[in-house]
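[User] Could I get a sequence and structure tokens?

[Assistant]
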Amino acid sequence: MNIKRISRQVLCFYLILGFSHFTSKLLNAQSANLGSMQEISIIKRVNDLWKLNVNLESRIEHFDTKNLNSNLETHYVLTDLSVLASRKLNHNYTLGFGYLSRFQNSDRINRFIQQLTVVDRSFRYTFSHRFMADQTFITTENISYRLRYRFVFERALSGLRVDAKEWYLKVGNEIVTIYRNELFNLEYRITPTIGYAFSNASKLELGLDTRYKSLVHNEIEFENWLTINWFYSF
């Protein structure tokens, strides 16, 4: 099985499908927002095969077109706490399983995660493919099922690879398919990011997370999140 060829075909299919809806419906977007997203990711290498990733993320909203007629105020949206255990299958492939707990308003949302990551490093570039499935459980709603494919391009801005005290560029594209309440939906995300490696263990990334939601239905939503992410591995 040629996983790289399959992943390229999947990416092309989803991009064509996503953009066909996006270009026809973006101008009819029902809402748009601007917020900030802060993330801390701690990665513990248990041994040569296993590693554990603990992630804490929060979101704060600063602007929403739904509230144009009211006083615009910054307000807290949610906090995610997740744990992901992953095992290296070989040099390029990693299999992971995890759990996420979301705290939003008075609700606590539970999500189970399964993912396969494929990384291809060549010369100054790194290409990664992430295939993810997750199941979200909310007390007052039906289970939500999602299939996600993410492609990330990373490039060192100096030298052949990202070393300590160097900058790098990272651009991610993700297609999210959603099934809930017997309805299918589609979401597209693009995440351009600039990063700086303080050391081999510590990195900081600043970027923009743009999301086009509800592409299949007419109530398309347009979201922008200014992101600041800190990664530490040991």
In short: Residues 3-25 form the longest helix (23 residues). The longest strand covers residues 107-122. The chain has one helix and eleven strands.
